[in-house]
Write a structure and sequence with these properties.
Layout (H helix, E strand, L loop, with lengths): L1 H13 L3 E5 L3 H9 L3 E2 L18 H8 L5 H4 L8 H13 L3 H9 L7 E4 L15 E2 L6 H4 L1 H8 L17 E3 L3 H24 L1 E2 L2 E2 L16 H4 L17 H16 L11 H4 L3 H14 L7 H17 L12 E5 L9 E3 L2 H11 L9 E5 L6 E2 L2 E14 L2 E13 L11 H4 L3 H4 L16 E3 H10 L5 H21 L11 E9 L5 E8 L8 H23 L8 E6 L24
Parallel strand pairs: 1-2, 1-3, 3-4
Antiparallel strand pairs: 5-10, 6-7, 8-9, 8-10, 11-12, 12-13, 12-15, 13-14, 13-17, 15-16
Helix pairs in contact: 1-6, 2-20, 8-19, 9-11, 9-13, 9-14, 11-14
Length: about 600
């Protein structure tokens, strides 16, 4: 057995087929072994890949060849290790039953891996990393894979594409920057004015229906209800009447906003009239009564016509008017956390600002939080909210080369969609969030594991009479959003020849089937949470290896479900584009 192991190791070293895996990736390990690669296993305790000295002890090799073991093999997992490392230990133990892999791994401990698949780039020794030929991670991805970074990067979109950011990315603000916080406050107020006009027009007979009745059960653990839920009474309580100028003020604000959108204020040096034209504190309190307490609004015929005309003109200027609804819900997110952790929603301006301050403790700053307009009118399936996890691979940043995966999956919530109560079970589609609510089932037609493949989704669209929506609207929209985000972020990403990365983008679909980019995740989970993800995650890992390894030796080999989304022409450029560009000058006087 020792002789056989040495022969396989010698061949792998000659063909440069030494690999290392850090993280829960048994599929990657199995596929590489099947290609004749030999693994340099990582130490169980430190979980770090470091350069090893070349003086291996011959007696340890012989001991392993005889089936013996050493302290490293007998070491028990650390009980305080992260869940992902525990899972990897379990997977490795099951694979290590074939002792020849242990033996070959020991024989290559002094070899620099030719291929590395890691869950964290920071776990790799800095001196060793530059010597590894192929790595599955890029450094410095904050500009793309944090919510704050993506929000900032996409603001540069006009430098790269003549595309309106608001057509694919819900409005987003970084609360730690005073200018953006003020912009958010103004946006919240303007949205409230538009929402008031919508509520005023939405009537059935004699009663406004701008809001929906709250469900009977409104208590779900996992989200502080005081922050996110403002249920409305089943019958309107007697309250003081609204002041009569409320609708007129909303109309005035919207007219002022239209003038700003039409650039009629281009030479103005004073603050935006949208900020000063009315008493906003009083207006918002009255708006809350209309939106959340069902206080009735009575419009004259003239006011109805004015509201309809203003909203029609706003719709021509505001791409997000159709998804923003009329309850002015915003979602507050920590910048660098994943799996839905720390996310809360609110319908009130003061709550958003208070939440941002209260969340900013000793370990966090306000600038690490973003607030984003919540999509109040998403496409639902069986009255249940869902989102889409879409994979893509970047194999080079300079020139930018992107591959789009043609398979993806949908993630469902556990309770029917409702804006009366904003708990996670209804509004956060993350698998790690929804697994807390395994006993809840929104509709018997939703699968128990709350996962659909894109094929099942297309079948559902066909039943709705929208069979072409997937290829005509959804897929092109996702491709365009991904490419726009990559173009904006690439100057801030660490580019390294030989590296690649598999990303997971999350999209929400509007009622018009338009996809809305929510975030982009580096190192997306490959854990099989369902029958669908077990198949698709295995496939995308297999096809990724085909793309980055097999294709080098055989450019015509199959790359599975990947298709080339974009390959930039290799043109050297010295121009650095950023936010610091400015134009200075002085006015010309008539002679």
């Amino acid at each position: 057995r020792l002789k056989k192991a040495k022969l396989r190791v010698e061949k792998a070293i000659k063909e440069k087929k030494i690999f290392a895996v850090q993280g829960p990736y048994p599929i990657i390990r199995r596929l590489l072994r099947a290609r004749g690669w030999v693994e340099r296993k990582l130490p169980r305790k430190s979980r770090q890949l470091k350069q090893q000295p070349g003086d291996q002890k011959k007696q340890k090799v012989e001991k392993r060849a005889a089936g013996g073991s050493d302290k490293q093999r007998e070491a028990e997992p650390n009980p305080h290790r992260e869940d992902e490392d525990k899972k990897e230990d379990k997977e490795q133990c099951s694979e290590d039953s074939d002792d020849i892999h242990d033996l070959m791994s020991f024989l290559v401990q002094d070899q620099v891996p030719n291929f590395l698949w890691t869950i964290r780039l920071g776990n790799i020794d800095r001196e060793l990393l530059p010597r590894i030929e192929v790595v599955n991670r890029f450094p410095r991805l904050n500009a793309l894979c944090t919510k704050e970074g993506l929000c900032q990067s996409l603001q540069n979109l006009p430098w790269f594409e003549q595309v309106d950011l608001n057509t694919f990315f819900p409005r987003c603000y970084r609360l730690g920057f005073m200018g953006e916080q003020e912009a958010f406050i103004e946006d919240f107020r303007l949205t409230a004015a538009r929402s008031l006009l919508k509520l005023a027009l939405q009537k059935v007979g004699d009663r406004p229906v701008g809001t929906e009745q709250p469900p009977k059960s409104d208590r779900v653990s996992g989200w502080p209800r005081s922050h996110v839920s403002h249920p409305m009474p089943s019958t309107a309580r007697p309250r003081s009447s609204l002041y009569p100028q409320l609708v007129e003020e909303a109309l005035e604000v919207c007219e002022q906003h239209l003038s700003v959108l039409g650039h009629q204020d281009i030479d103005r040096n004073t603050p935006s009239p949208c900020r000063t034209c009315i008493a906003w504190d009083r207006f918002l309190q009255e708006y809350y009564r209309v939106a959340h307490e069902r206080i009735r609004l009575v419009l004259s015929k003239k006011q109805q016509e004015q509201c309809q005309d203003v909203l029609r003109r706003l719709e021509e200027q505001l791409p997000q008017l159709g998804i923003e609804g009329n309850l002015n819900v915003w979602i507050l997110k920590p910048s660098a956390k994943s799996r839905g952790r720390g996310i809360v929603c609110s319908k009130r301006l003061e709550e958003v600002l208070e939440l941002a301050q209260s969340c900013a403790g000793s370990s966090a700053r306000v600038c690490e939080w973003v607030v984003q307009k919540y999509v109040e009118r998403p496409l639902t399936i069986f009255d249940t909210k869902f989102d889409i996890r879409q994979w893509f691979v970047v194999t080079d940043w300079k020139p930018l080369t992107v591959w789009f995966y043609q398979d993806c999956y949908l993630r469902f919530c556990s309770r029917p969609f409702s804006l009366c109560h904003l708990e996670p079970a209804r509004h956060l589609c993350n698998v790690s969030i929804q697994k807390r609510y395994k006993t809840l089932q929104p509709d018997p037609r939703v699968p128990p594991d709350k996962i659909w493949s894109n094929t099942e989704f297309q079948e559902h669209l066909a039943q709705l009479g929208q069979a072409d929506a997937w290829q005509r609207v959804i897929v092109p929209g996702m491709k365009a959003a991904i490419l726009n985000a990559l173009r904006c972020a690439r100057d801030h990403v660490g580019s390294r020849k030989g590296s690649f990365e598999l990303f997971g983008a999350d999209f929400l679909i509007g009622k018009d089937f338009q996809p809305w980019l929510l975030e982009i995740n580096s190192c997306p989970t490959m854990s099989p949470s369902s029958v669908v993800t077990r198949r698709l995650c295995a496939n995308v890992q297999r096809d990724t290896l085909r793309l980055v390894l097999d294709r080098k030796d055989n450019p015509t080999c199959s790359i599975g479900a990947f298709e080339l989304l974009y390959r930039e022409a290799a043109v050297s450029s010295c121009l650095s584009v950023g936010l610091q560009l400015e134009v200075t000058g002085c006015s010309l006087k008539n002679p």
